[in-house]
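User: I'm new to structure prediction. If I give you an amino acid sequence, what do you actually give back? Let's try with this one:
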Amino acid sequence: MFIVLSRLDYEQSQDQLFSMIGDVNMVISQDETPDSAVAEVMLMIGDARFRGKGLGRQMLLVLMRYAEEEFFIRKFEAHISLENHSSIALFTSLGFTTVSTDETFGEHLLQLQLDEPALQALVTQSDNVSYSMDRASFHPVA
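Assistant: Good question. You get back a string of structure tokens that encode the predicted 3D arrangement of the chain. For your 142 residues, that looks like this:
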């Protein structure tokens, strides 16, 4: 789990709680075949001040690039509530597609397979995202 802080808020206040945008998480699973690793990615923007500003996109791009570079992950999944239209739109804009819907749990399963064109798109989109690691926290430019 990475807690994401607003750099500007943190530099002004030195208060991590006040500066917290949200968090981004990844759970990696793998069966017995070498190329079977899958990262389930999760995102939460807890502070309404930061919603709708593109920060969720930045957070996901950085996390996915980290997963690909550090763990060679080429497949991503996300479970998203049927009512969470903004998250569905975000993940879809990054190339995820809906592969199933579970009415019992009220969620869609979205997946992204990073083939070479998708990997190049990820690199291109994440190249302009500025962040720093500080005790396992991302600080996107906000």
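You can read the tokens as a compact description of the fold. Here is one thing that stands out. The beta strands are 2-5, 20-29, 38-45, 75-81, 97-102, 107-113, 137-138.
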